[in-house]
């Protein structure tokens, strides 16, 4: 991820920022932004007038009980539909809602899309899909537990340390 003055390029054509940068004409034009996904919770935001600029408002608050999951599919769909152009996802500070939405989108599309592009006829069975999703949840849970600031949230472990060791240090891995 490349960053510059709080504007972060997450992948080709996908940027993450705060509200302030999303309102700057110079930022939008220099990156050729064609879609803004506003997850600031503010609907009356006046963006610079640009031909072809579309704005999607995702009306969510930055609270732990907010049902962000309800937005994942729609946001991922919009980003995917705009993938030949450039998307900017922002919230107020660019630290909570917008990164979570991007991570959900990449989680859903990145690996599956990459494999399908290289081998379009794949069809893993339903059991394998379920296992892949469970594995991804386990990896994400382990990642979240290791984030330095996350201990204040008192996240309960989803896996015992013994299970994590088996999962993340399989006997066939190189040491």
Automatic annotation (TrEMBL):
Keywords carried by this UniProt record: Hydrolase, Protein phosphatase
GO cellular component: cytoplasm
GO MF annotation, one: phosphoprotein phosphatase activity
Pfam family, one: DSPc
Domain of life: Eukaryota
InterPro entries: Dual-sp_phosphatase_cat-dom, Dual_spec_Phospatases, Prot-tyrosine_phosphatase-like, Tyr_Pase_AS, TYR_PHOSPHATASE_DUAL_dom
Coiled-coil zones: none
Residue span, Tyrosine-protein phosphatase domain: 6-138
Family: Belongs to the protein-tyrosine phosphatase family. Non-receptor class dual specificity subfamily.
The protein's name in its UniProt record: Tyrosine-protein phosphatase domain-containing protein
Species of origin: Echeneis naucrates (Live sharksucker)
